[in-house]
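Q: Could you fold this chain for me?
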Amino acid sequence: MASLRERLAARRLLVADGAWGTQLQERGLAPGECPELWNATRPQEVRAVAAGYIGSGSDLILTNTFGGSPWMLRRHGLEERTAGLNAAGARLSLEAAGTRALVAASIGPTGELPAPLGTASEEEMEEAFHRQARALLEAGVRILCVETMIDITEAACAVRAARQAAGELGVTVEVMATLTYGPTPGGYRTAMGVDIPRTVEALTRAGADVVGANCGNGIEQMLPIAAAFRALSSLPLLIQANAGLPVLEGGRTVFRQSPQDMARHVPGLVRAGASIIGGCCGTGPAHIAALRRAVDAELGDGGGDYSALLR
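A: Sure. Below is the predicted structure, expressed as structure tokens.
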């Protein structure tokens, strides 16, 4: 199968998947339950999430391994199963994808902060990410997605760990890395105060092949974020927006942006420099199908007819 860079060179613009957590919740995942455990106990449900996104037109799907670091799994008493649960998650998405889509294994935050704000050293963080990355690579994944990070030191540790694990195994890996930003008087920054220039510099130095942003914002807010990244980097740019900003309804957090409304912003996101467009919190297969139609229209595959987005 072609690499991510080869796919981007051939098509210029790819569609990623949407949220995984809410899809698993719809299938019965209980609050506080470990999603990664489902890779072993309910594999058919996890495979169904991957298949749903592929059926909706995703060129690239993730894996159910966002919380698969040994430190996150320790909270569920599952640290000793780090390798097995990550490998199972990778295999399920690979099986669902076949030759129809690329698979990027999800690597989320550890839940800890590096010193001096936290107690974890960079060496400890890299070792934790290394355990997860090695298991994912051994299962056959060749793209790793470090995502939803707010601390640049942690994100860089994960990217370096991915590169180290690939080197040890003698395989080629492509590493994507995204952080989550919010608006501040000084521009968009993460909750830890990391701005986009610092992100680009640190991730590039660590060895990321793709940079970008996910979560925290609706697609409208991702437009200036994407433009800021593109002004500083020529690397492929991944943008995965929420389905609008969250609102509280009946004590629940919900995302109300419709698939059609989200898709209307694809041309603007493309003009801002995005290379891969997908969804995060609140998005599902219907959102991805709408993004697929918009991307195809942007590329000319749909004849440039945006009327389909209004249906």
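A (continued): The radius of gyration is 18 Å.
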